[in-house]
Specification:
The protein is of the alpha+beta class. It is built from 10 helices and 6 strands; from the N terminus they run H-H-H-H-H-E-E-E-E-E-E-H-H-H-H-H. The chain folds into 2 domains: 260 residues, no CATH class; 82 residues.
């Protein structure tokens, strides 16, 4: 009998879980679709590379959509059972809430393990692979992004114009460059040819100009300098097509595994800000998966309450609960980043607050001692008193 009930409850939760997980992940990916389409249409990026970007970006979304989907699916599944009085029937049959929660705990454990795997391994790999793929694509701007007879400002501080780009796209001809990297005295450079050269070791892109001249005028327009060259290099700042203003650099904290974070934190050359960032990221690798356990407990407490059997209620309550949780999570991280609280407290603050509330609600619901606020009865008394009074 118990196995049948477990399978029944598990079915009520599992199907909404995977459905919501797919929908939420797809909706969050839609925020990147326009940028990805721009890369494919205007930059000439192949469909295969776009598919790779979507694949690499998915883990960073799953780390959040898995706990959210878990909470909403529990609220919807148990809410349906509670609304149809099936939870009441189970309790009347001598089955306690602790026993009913076994299949919910199984789903929560599955979500926890899934989030651990995604956070510890897939997210660092996906973030680092995304950066490297974008870097490789950026080196092809001469062939796929820079059009002839069109001014191009994709590179920060550099305005580029090419009179001709051959069909094979290996180089540009009759190039005009306005370089603002020199500060108060920007340079105007003209050259016969230009190549994009990638340095994979330092993750830098250099535009190599050949057979040209550089022209510079000072701020007061009093002095003019001209320099002829056979070879001249201009360093380009590559901006991520998916996050404007974020320069490609070496492995960041979000691109490191837990072992790499620990090894990096042991370094003696770290400043206080960098050490806090690494500590916060290391704690988040555990605190975010642990939210699955928190959402599982609070989902049971809120899902078995008597109400009308509407799925929209579970969805609404779930989103509201998630909103509060992540506001606390972001607030804790912000305080930790500024050094006001320790990184461990900042990363775990939301879990600590929610686990206390969740356990209290769960025990109160299991013992059927949860205080009820009889708003309708109080409102009825007030209206009755108002009708009983007559104007003098």
């Amino acid at each position: 009998m118990f196995k049948t009930i477990d399978r029944y409850i598990l079915k009520e939760i599992a199907f909404p879980f995977f459905l919501i997980l797919f929908v939420l992940t797809f909706v969050l990916l839609m925020g990147k679709i326009l940028q990805l389409m721009d890369m494919m249409v205007n930059k000439g990026v192949s469909v295969i590379d776009i598919a790779r970007l979507v694949f690499y970006l998915s883990p960073s979304l799953l780390i959040f959509t898995v706990p959210i989907s878990l909470l909403i699916s529990i609220l919807m599944g148990l809410g349906r059972l509670s609304g149809d009085n099936e939870i009441t029937v189970l309790k009347a049959s001598g089955i306690s809430l602790y026993r009913i929660s076994h299949p919910v705990a199984l789903v929560s454990l599955f979500a926890f393990v899934m989030t651990i795997i995604v956070g510890f391994f897939l997210v660092p790999y996906g973030n680092f692979a995304t950066k490297n793929l974008l870097f490789r694509l950026s080196t092809q701007k001469a062939t796929i992004g820079i059009k002839e007879k069109v001014f191009n400002d994709d590179f920060r501080g550099v305005l580029l114009y090419a009179e001709k780009v051959p069909v094979h796209g290996d180089f540009m001809e009759d190039v005009f460059v306005y370089d603002e990297h020199t500060g108060k005295e920007p340079s105007t450079i003209v050259a016969k040819k230009a190549y994009l050269v990638a340095n994979t070791a330092s993750l830098a892109v250099i535009m190599r100009l050949e057979n040209g001249s550089s022209h510079t005028v000072d701020a007061n327009l009093e002095h003019y300098r001209k320099m002829d060259f056979s070879t001249y290099d201009v360093k380009l700042d590559i901006e991520s097509s998916l996050s404007a203003g974020e320069k490609i650099k070496v492995k960041g904290s979000t691109e490191m595994t837990a072992r790499e974070l620990v090894e990096k934190m042991k370094g003696r050359d770290l400043d206080e800000t960098a050490a806090r960032e690494l500590a916060i990221e290391l704690n988040k690798k555990l605190s975010i998966p642990f939210s699955c356990a928190v959402f599982g407990i609070i989902g049971i407490a809120l899902g078995v309450r008597a109400h009308r059997p509407t799925k929209s209620r579970g969805f609404t309550v779930g989103l509201f609960t998630v909103l509060i949780y992540y506001v606390l999570q972001l607030g804790g991280e912000a305080l930790a980043e500024t050094g006001r609280i320790s990184p461990a407290v900042g990363a775990w603050a939301a879990n600590i607050i929610f686990i206390v509330i969740s356990v209290y609600l769960f025990i109160a619901v299991a013992r059927e001692r949860l205080p009820e606020f009889k708003i309708r009865a109080d409102l009825l008394k007030i209206l009755t008193r108002g009708k009983g009074r007559r104007p003098s």
